[in-house]
Design a protein that fits this description.
alpha+beta, two-stranded antiparallel sheet, about 55% helix, 6 helices, two-stranded parallel ribbon
């Protein structure tokens, strides 16, 4: 965990900042402009989808990485998506903070249990 944080985040608390490569961020952003390709990929999903969102962005002062207009589109293209906003979390603390990680683990475990139950019922159906 420490090695990951050293790689991803710079500065000293409370002034931590992501160290993301500008070139990588630009490449990622350019992928977002390939709307038709993204929509086709999203609409092709045929399995349960669990979208776990941090309440804030990279830092507590930043807005979420997935703003509401993006989420509206996701809901349209992936109607089976189950969405959860994990309160009090950032992009990092949703999985690396104790509260965020515990909430995510519980939600994933719950979905896995429901999928397992549904799969068992389908296999046992006449």
């Amino acid at each position: 965990m420490e090695a990951f944080l050293d790689y991803e985040v710079g500065g000293d608390p409370p002034n931590l900042q992501p160290k993301a490569s500008e070139a990588a961020v630009r490449a990622d952003l350019m992928e977002g402009f390939k709307t038709a390709e993204l929509v086709a990929r999203l609409e092709a999903i045929r399995v349960p989808v669990l979208m776990l969102r941090a309440e804030k962005g990279f830092t507590p002062q930043m807005p979420p990485l997935f703003p509401e207009p993006a989420m509206q589109a996701m809901r349209q293209y992936v109607p089976q998506m189950e969405e959860h906003l994990v309160p009090g979390t950032t992009h990092y603390t949703i999985v690396m903070g104790e509260r965020g990680a515990a909430a995510c683990a519980d939600l994933i475990d719950n979905l896995a249990g429901r999928c397992h139950t549904a799969g068992s019922q389908m296999r046992n159906a006449p």
